[in-house]
Amino acid sequence: MRVLIVKDYDEMSKKAADIVAELVKRKPNCVLGLATGSTPEGLYSELVRRHKEEGLDFSKVITFNLDEYYGLPGTHPQSYRYFMNEKLFNGINIRKENTLVPDGKVPIKDIEKFCKEYEEKIKKAGGIDLQVLGIGGDGHIAFNEPGSSLSSRTRLVALNEQTIKDNSRFFSSVDDVPKYALSMGVGTILEAKELLFLANGEKKAEVVAKAIEGPITSSITASALQLHPKVTVILDEGAAKMLSRVSFYKFAAEAEEKIGMKLF
Ligand code: F6R
Question: Which member of 46, 67, 119, 166 is catalytic?
């Protein structure tokens, strides 16, 4: 696991954009896995800037989003489809048909089939080359709440109280927050070829330390990232505050610069 500690949110976003842009240039038809939420907003606006000012080309890129609130149509301003259109897709030259987000309005009876097909589409596209991830206050990745199997697949999940409370900041009241979501599983995420895990702010410090340095446990589903061979973690100073191996991470990051090679 590469752990890069940077000064602030802006630097985290730019460093993350460097990794995404490098892939898009090297493999123009790459498959990106994307997350929503406050964490990757800066990354997306930096990618939009690089498209507009530097011609970063997304015309052949395919994307799969991690999750979507169940019950919200893509036209709802709090849906993840809407978020992605607003924050990224409308600002770059990606083909809309190449942007896949789970459909929050799929009828209950079709959910299982829908989820199976979502996974099949990922496979058919050649698998996810790079998956962007944030972490929830309860340690979740995508909407894999504490207790989710570490080999879970795309499915309908119930959101726990903390997530509903955390995400109520985007809704007019906590009662308006959907209680269910369609989410890629931890097992699905671990199949991506490379992971890019981002976190910022002191509020995340404790859960980030548990995820990165604690035991692998379904109580903190982000800890499953320790099982993946190619993870880059980018944290701002706030989110890194409770890590115990900071001097080692800094040493390894300097070594990378010296030898010009990523040390996972
Ligand atoms: C969203 C997602 C979630 C978020 C997490 C953190 O697609 O997968 O796991 O990454 O809830 O959200 P923020 O970034 O808003 O703190």
Answer: 67
Nearest to 122 by CA among 230, 224, 31: 31
142 in any annotated domain: yes
Model pLDDT, residue 43:
98
Kindly report, residue by residue over 207-222, the tens digit of the pLDDT: 999 999 999 999 999 9
Sign of CA dihedral 180, 202, 133, 231: negative
Query: Which atom of ligand 1 has the smallest separation from the CA of 40?
Result: 14
> Measuring from atom 5 of ligand 1, which residue has the nearest CA?
136
Residue 10 appears among annotated catalytic residues:
no
Provide the residue type at 35 as one letter. Answer: A
* Mean pLDDT within 243-253: 97
Query: Coil, helix or strand for 13?
Result: helix
Choosing from 12, 143, 170, 203 the residue with most ligand 1 atoms within 8 A of its CB, the one to mutate for a pocket test is: 143
Q: What is the pLDDT of residue 115?
A: 98
Answer whether residue 264 is part of any domain.
no
What pTM did the predictor assign? Answer: 0.98
Ligand 1 atom, smallest distance to 34 CA: 7
The number of folded domains in the chain is 1
**How confident is the model over 125-141, as pLDDT tens digits?**
999 999 999 999 999 99
* Average pLDDT estimate for 95-111: 98
CATH number, position 198 = 3.40.50.1360
Tokens 């979501």 identify what position?
A: 181
Residue whose Cα lies nearest atom 2 of ligand 1: it is 142
